[in-house]
Amino acid sequence: MAAVTETIETVKKIFSAYLEQRSLRKTAERFSILEEIYSRHDQFEAEQLYIDLMKKEVNVSRATVYNTLDLLTTCELVRKHQFGRSQAQYEKSYGYKQHDHVICIECKKVVEFCDPRLQQIQNMAGELLNFEISHHTLQFYGICSTCNAKKKLNN
Amino acid sequence: MAAVTETIETVKKIFSAYLEQRSLRKTAERFSILEEIYSRHDQFEAEQLYIDLMKKEVNVSRATVYNTLDLLTTCELVRKHQFGRSQAQYEKSYGYKQHDHVICIECKKVVEFCDPRLQQIQNMAGELLNFEISHHTLQFYGICSTCNAKKKLNN
DNA sequence: CTAGGTGCAAATGCTTTGCATGCCC
DNA sequence: GGGCATGCAAAGCATTTGCACCTAG
C-alpha cells in the first residue's frame, strides 16, 4: 500500500513538472484523473475512466478526460493502444516495465509479455532507416488455450 | 507487367476458392475491389479506395467496400493496420513478404522493414503463453531524419 | 426461386470542437 | 485580470446497419 501511495506521489510530481515546463495549468481535474488512473490495475478505456470518475463524484467532463489522457500520453505517464477497431485502450506506464501484448482473436483477452530482443531489433531498425525511435507497439494475435479447447470440442 | 497480371489472376483464384468454401457469392463488385487493390502499390484507406473506384466508374457502395475489405482480411489477401487514431490502413498481402512498420510521429511517413528474429519471438511467446499465434503487428515510432534535421534548424 | 449481396441513407459510437463560464498563475 | 481550462452539447468522421431491391447459384 505504501508503495502505491509513493508511486502516486511520484507521478504527480512528474506530471506537475511537465505542466510547468510547458506552461500549462495544474488544475484539480488533471490531477484527479491522474490519481484515478494510477489507482487502477488494469487497462481501461476513456469512457470507463469517465464513468468511474463520475461514480466517485469527481466531476470532470469527457472532454477533459480526453484532453488529460493526451497530455499524460505525451509525457509518457500513460500508454495508448489502438488494438481493435473501436475504443482506444490506455494503461499507466510509470514504474511499469515496457511490455507487449498477445491478444486472443476469439475472446479478446489481452496478455502481457516481454522479450529483451525486441530492444535490439528496435535499435537496429532505427540505425538502418535513420530514425530516432522513441517507442514501439507489438501485438501478437492468436487463439488462447481456452478458446482452442472450446473449438476442438465443437468439431 | 506480366508478373502483375499473373498475381492478379492468382489472388482472384484464391479469393474465389475462399468464397466457394464459405458458400459466399462471387459477385462482380467483390472482384472489382480485389482487382483495384492489387493494381495499387501503396497502403491505402477505405475511403480512398472507394473514391478511386468511383473515378474508374466502378459502381460500388462504401458498405460493399468495407464488407469486401473484411472478407479479404479474413482470407489474408489484405492486411489491416490501425496505426493512428483515425482511418484504418490496408495493404495487399499476397506475394508480399511479412514486414513491419516504422512511423514518423512528426510527418506520419511510414517505412517498411523486416527482421527475422521477430519470428523467433513470436514462436516463443506462443509457447510460453499457450497461444496459437497467427500473426502480429509491430510498429516503431520515432522521428525520421528529415524531421530531425528540421527540428535542429528551429533550435 | 431464395438467401445472401448490394446501394443508399440514416444511425452509431468514439472522439473532438465551439462557446460561455470558471479559475490558475 | 488575462488567458488557458473546463463543462456541456453539438458536430465530426469512420464505420456499420436497416431496408428495399437485385442476382448468383
Could you list some keywords that capture this structure?
homodimer, 50% helix, DNA-binding, 6 strands, 21% strand, 3-stranded mixed β-sheet, alpha+beta
Written description of the protein model:
- The structure is a homodimer of 155-residue chains.
- With 155 residues, chain A is α+β, with helices and mostly antiparallel strands.
- Chain A is 50% helix and 21% strand.
- Chain A is built from six helices and six strands; from the N terminus they run ααβααββββαβα.
- The first copy, chain A, has helices spanning 2-21, 28-38, 46-55, 62-74, 117-129, 145-154, and strands at 44-45, 78-81, 89-92, 100-104, 110-113, 131-144.
- Chain A has a three-stranded antiparallel beta sheet with strand order 1-3-2. In chain A, strands 5-4-6 form a three-stranded mixed beta sheet.
- In chain A, strand 4 (100-104) and strand 5 (110-113) form a beta hairpin.
- The longest helix of chain A is centred in the N-terminal third of the chain and has 20 residues, at 2-21.
- Chain A starts with a helix and ends with a helix.
- Chain A binds chain B through residues 82-85, 88, 102, 104-105, 111, 113, 115, 117-118, 120-122, 124-126, 128-145, 148, and chain B through 82-85, 88, 102, 104-105, 111, 113, 115, 117-118, 120-122, 124-126, 128-145, 148.
- Strand 6 (131-144) of chain A pairs antiparallel with strand 6 (131-144) of chain B, so a sheet runs across the interface.
